Amino acid sequence: MAAGEVFHTQVLPTMKTRTRQLTTAPGTPRWAVVTFVAATACLWSSNIAAAPFTQDQVNSGRDDYLTSCASCHGKELSGTTAPALTGKAFRASWSKHTTAELYTFVQNMMPVSQEGRLADDDYINIVAFILSKNGAKAGSEALTATTSARIGEITSGASAK
Fold it and tell me: How far is CA 20 from CA 2, 12, 23, in A?
């Protein structure tokens, strides 16, 4: 690839294709540039580990959340009369904590004035749903009350749709 040559790359599946003009040192072999670009794209796309919950838990958690949490935290987890459960505010509060700590907090504190009234599986599924809405990717392991994954390592910080 020569200096000044235009190339296209899709860095992540969720990002649009970007066009950039490549500026390299004279004599840089094309294979070196292509290898660097490919390696960088792989690192960017794999820096978030699969989370310890399943897609079934997310789906159940969505229903449980809408029934038990949305009236205060909002249908889109953006907060109404209670704090938002996605984005910067969530990551600032929870990125250094574990999934077990989040589960314990939710189970012991929610719903307000009715703490602990939901089944354990409902709380677990709600936590899976909250994590998925913060960019965590469902995996093959089921979330449990004792699963201890650091939230900042499994969430991307971007609110998932």
Answer: 13, 15, 9
Bridge partners, residue 6, by sequence: 21
Cβ atoms 136, 51 nearer than 8 A: yes
Radius of gyration, alpha carbons of the chain: 20
Residue 160 lies in a domain: no
For 99-136, the pLDDT digits (tens) are: 999 999 999 999 999 999 999 999 999 999 999 999 99
88 and 148 in a single domain? The answer is: yes
pTM for the whole structure:
0.71
Provide the residue range defining the domain that includes 91.
Answer: 55-154
- CA pair distance 34, 81, nearest whole angstrom: 51
